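Look at one record.

>
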Amino acid sequence: MHRGIATFGLDEGRCPKWLFERMTNLSRQAIEIIVAEYGADEFIKRLGDPAWFQSLGTVLAFDWNASGLTTILTAALKEAVRGRERELGIFVCGGKGRTSRKTPEEIRRWGSWLTLPEKNSETLVYNSKMAAKVDSALVQDGFQLYHHAFFFSKTGAWTVVQQGMNTKTASARRYHWYSANMKDLINEPHTGIMSSMRYKKVLDLTAQASMKNRNTSLALTGQGFGSLWKDIRILYNHSTSLNQTLALKFKGDTLTSLNLEQKEFTWHPVVEENFFESPYLKKILDKVCGYHPKSYEEMVSLQGVGAKTVRALTLVAEVLYGAKPSYQDPARYSFAFGGKDATPYPVDRPTYDASLKLIAEAVRRYQTKSVFIK
């Protein structure tokens, strides 16, 4: 699986009708050319590349560094294939806000229309839901998802393009998923990542470095709710006096100790006021333990399991059992292709040229047809 992240300024307002019509028109031409030359799966693949997606939006004349590029471009692509899904072999589901919540329904509708086996359609629905769950619960970077689009082809290739907002920093971050060679929905799905900012501490449970924490979290649910809640009460009782020594139990009967200073607890990314006092948290943890999930993915997929449930398990696994997760922000690059002054890194010319070649050809053919409205 390939997945990328991009961060942009959070903008307001609407796309002018005249611009949206032109974006739809030009994107329709680009889709036709790419599908004709390389097939529908290639187009789905390219949407999973954050740099290529950004390039397409920029070529279509939208602000390159605005959050609206994601939502407007997705809407334009959806409109561009409307009525021609069978011919192009491309299906677009979801969108912004309330429309995003219609994604499962739209996937099932297209699956029925394509006479796909119900199992295949439900697998697509599951992948869509898990992409949203992972980027909201496992990558806790302060961005709340408000846009989710699911693109797929007749062969089952799929891409997710979703975006979250951070109102405190007035910024938005885009997440890309692509299904090719997918092995794991949880562990290290990142490849092409670009962002205009990074944070010092982000709880990233998708990182390879978080594997021990994930395994420990799953093991905690297997011990039963009584044992898990006892661990949580230990943390709760010491939350105001963490200079005390807490007993840690590892494999076997070996006991050790860990000195926790107050300052370590106050900045801990997973802790918030009244964190341990939530009745809902207790109810969900009881449910998870009773379900006996066989894998971390299965646990995360359970209805009701969200960011707070994951944080609670993460904290117990780290503080009491020494399984520290990754707190590195998975966003890595400030721009799609680098900068002319080598900031944050030199321009990646091959990637730049490869990403723009097809789009430029689409524009050339489109203008040759003389259908662009000036």
